Amino acid sequence: MSSRDRAQLNLPLSESAPDGDAPEIAENFGILLVTEDPSIGPVLSGALREAGHAVSVASEARVALSMLKSDPLPNVIILDLALPDMQGTEFCRAVRSERRTRSVPLVVVTSRDTEADRIVAFELGADDFVGAPFSVREVVLRVRVQLRRSTSDRPKGGVIEVGSLRLNSEAHRVWVNDKEVSLSVREFRLLQALMERSERVLSRPTLLDLVWGSAANIGVRAVDAYVTRLRRKLGSARDYVETVSSVGYRLKRPIG
Description:
The protein is α/β, with parallel strands linked by helices. The chain folds into 2 domains: 150 residues, Rossmann fold (3-Layer(aba) Sandwich); 93 residues, Winged helix-like DNA-binding domain superfamily/Winged helix DNA-binding domain (Arc Repressor Mutant, subunit A, Orthogonal Bundle). Helix content is 36%, strand content 19%. It is built from 9 helices and 12 strands. A 5-stranded parallel β-sheet has the order 2-1-3-4-5, sandwiched between helices. It has a 4-stranded antiparallel β-sheet with strand order 6-7-8-9, covered by helices on one side. Strand 3, helix 4 and strand 4 form a beta-alpha-beta unit. Helix 2 crosses helix 6 and helix 7 packs across helix 9. The radius of gyration is 19 Å and the shape is elongated.
């Protein structure tokens, strides 16, 4: 980021996660912070460590991508879009194009905060977008939200539950309000992709790759047709599948 951009950020050097804001989840989660900005890296990594996380910092995209080839994978990636060796958008594409890293939650932090910037970030697979001005505490809290979602969505015995929806990936069965619903193979894979990433916005190309595979010779609008079919079969749970204008779809969790 330029000095002008940094001036737009509300990043006091002494700020960290406040007392009492340690993670409620007992595990020591790993965070990969990708930024070259000296006004962001030390402050944010310090706050995350104080909140109980193990933090690795990469100042270049190529270093971060190399780190993502090793075990263990981070539980969350925080990406500053301004990188010296690669466009941040290209880094997003690289992370989401690899099966190994496709499901790792990705939080974008940037000095740009327009609707167009947000749409592009979500289209490229970002799970959250934090634009300037922001505080370190806000980023720490948003990371915690991603950790809660990713851990609560881990299938237990192949079963995922969201509201009245229940999916068993091993048995290839789906229920709505305990009543079984018959889905085709593609409809099942589409629902599974959405449920495994609930609250994440998935673009049409991403869904096309997840459901049909990267070699599929069909257009992205096929996703729309299958979403329509899926909603029809889900009945009372049809509204769980939400359209995100100009981006794609997400499966939202019911309130309460």
